[in-house]
């Protein structure tokens, strides 16, 4: 699927991320979820999202960016989105909604596009996922598990778009208690293990009562590693 709705911007935050990437080599391998403070969202959006930090949802590296709480209060906080290898949780805003195709913006200076909760592209990162075909993955999740092929588009060292195919297995992993912005929920978890001749990664999905992906850990690119996402 092609990715639309991005502003195509490269902010100062993205430049700062480049420096941070050079200093950090950690990979995110722990599943989201785990311990929660159970705090209610009665403070500013950023303060509420900081409650994720005691559990596995927490990230390491950069401090949370400054957030205009008044702007977020006016526009609404859609959830949290962050790169756990390099940053802590930060609020995200919904900037485009075309049914199941949604684009969210992070105060870290990047946007991420999702198709029914599956990551299909990023903009504003030093190594973006330019696009992804995840049709078979969505079908396997709806079926309760199965095999799937996903195709990722990325840029090579000469800024040419190259495609990489991944063969994936999706399995149901039981229910798990996770914290969705101060609200505890027991949600079914799916694990997607994907491989190519040069790379292996593991995506995690937690499904809400309506079958939509409520929280996830999804692979971006080899440089960026994983993106975590939770809708409130």
TrEMBL record:
- Give the residue spans that cross the bilayer: none
Q: Keyword Transferase: yes or no?
A: no
What start and end residues bound the annotated signal peptide?
A: 1-25
Provide an example Pfam family for this protein. Answer: YjbF
**InterPro entries noted in UniProt:** GfcB, YmcC_sf
Tell me the keywords, alphabetical order.
Answer: Lipoprotein, Signal
Q: What is this protein called?
A: Group 4 capsule polysaccharide lipoprotein gfcB, YjbF
């Amino acid at each position: 699927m092609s990715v639309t709705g991005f502003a195509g911007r490269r902010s100062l935050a993205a430049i700062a991320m480049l420096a941070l990437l050079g200093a950090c080599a950690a990979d995110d391998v722990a599943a989201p979820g785990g311990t929660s403070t159970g705090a209610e969202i009665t403070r500013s959006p950023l303060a509420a999202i900081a409650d994720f930090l005691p559990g596995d949802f927490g990230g390491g590296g950069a401090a949370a960016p400054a957030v205009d709480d008044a702007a977020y209060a006016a526009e609404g906080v859609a959830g949290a989105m962050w790169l756990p290898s390099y940053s802590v949780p930060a609020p995200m805003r919904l900037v485009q909604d075309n049914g199941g195709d949604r684009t969210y913006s992070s105060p870290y200076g990047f946007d991420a596009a999702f198709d029914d909760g599956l990551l299909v592209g990023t903009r504003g990162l030093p190594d973006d996922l330019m696009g992804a075909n995840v049709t078979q993955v969505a079908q396997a999740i709806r079926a309760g598990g199965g095999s799937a092929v996903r195709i990722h588009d990325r840029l090579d060292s000469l800024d040419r778009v190259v495609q990489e195919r991944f063969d994936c297995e999706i399995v149901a992993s039981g229910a798990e208690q996770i914290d969705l912005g101060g609200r505890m929920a027991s949600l079914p978890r799916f694990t997607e293990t994907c491989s190519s001749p040069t790379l292996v990664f593991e995506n995690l999905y937690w499904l809400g009562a309506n079958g939509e992906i409520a929280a996830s850990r999804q692979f971006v690119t080899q440089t960026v590693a994983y993106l975590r996402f939770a809708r409130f």
